[in-house]
Amino acid sequence: MGGIATVAGRGRKPKPTKLKELNGNAGKRGLNKNEPKFKQVTNIEPPEWLEPLAVEMWQRVVPELLANDLLTLGDMHNVEAFCMAYAMWREAQEHIKLHGVVLTNPESGAVLKNPAVTVVNETARQLVQFGSLLGLDPSSRSRLTGSAQKETIANPFADL
């Protein structure tokens, strides 16, 4: 058998049509007209079950996403996961600050890695992943233009 492997889920994830439109579709490729359209979110309060640190992050991030028309109902689980990862990351950092990177077992005297270090590492990866999906990191943000109008410059040769 030859050819290209076409396993679902492999390779680069396709960019959503909304982001292609916001970026100007530089490749001039056809846009997916059948892409599911989720309802745009215009104002939303943090869920009651979020921890205080997660609510704090929600209140920082969501207004920015709303201001740029980048938040739909389909994104809400990513926002919640991002905010919860932030809360866990901060809690684990505080634990490390209080107890250190290593712990000593009182019974055996063995020195062990503080489990909070693993939590910090895992939640940091989650923050990067979910932040990227939401356009919150510099690399992802540089690919977005948001709802701001692009400044058009008059072409001096247009009337010739």
Protein architecture, described:
With 160 residues, the chain is mainly α. The chain has a domain at 39-142. Helices cover 45% and strands 4% of the residues. The protein has five helices and two strands; from the N terminus they run αααββαα. It has helices at 17-23, 52-67, 76-99, 115-134, 138-142; strands at residues 102-104, 111-113. The chain has a two-stranded antiparallel sheet. Strand 1 and strand 2 form a beta hairpin. Helix 3 (76-99) packs antiparallel against helix 4. It is elongated.
Quick structural gist:
This protein is mainly alpha-helical.
Q: Helix and strand succession?
A: HHHEEHH
Helix content: 40-55%
Look at the helices and sheets and give the structural class. mainly alpha
The strand order across the widest sheet is 1-2
Strand content: under 5%
Q: Characterize the main sheet.
A: 2 strands, antiparallel
Give the integer mean of the pLDDT values. Answer: 83
Indicate the low-confidence ranges by residue numbers. none
- First-to-last CA distance: 57 Å
Q: List how many beta strands DSSP finds.
A: 2
Shape: elongated
How many helix segments? 5
Cα Rg: 22 Å
Quaternary structure classification: single chain
Protein name: Terminase
Region (Disordered): 1-33
InterPro entries: Phage_term_ssu_P27
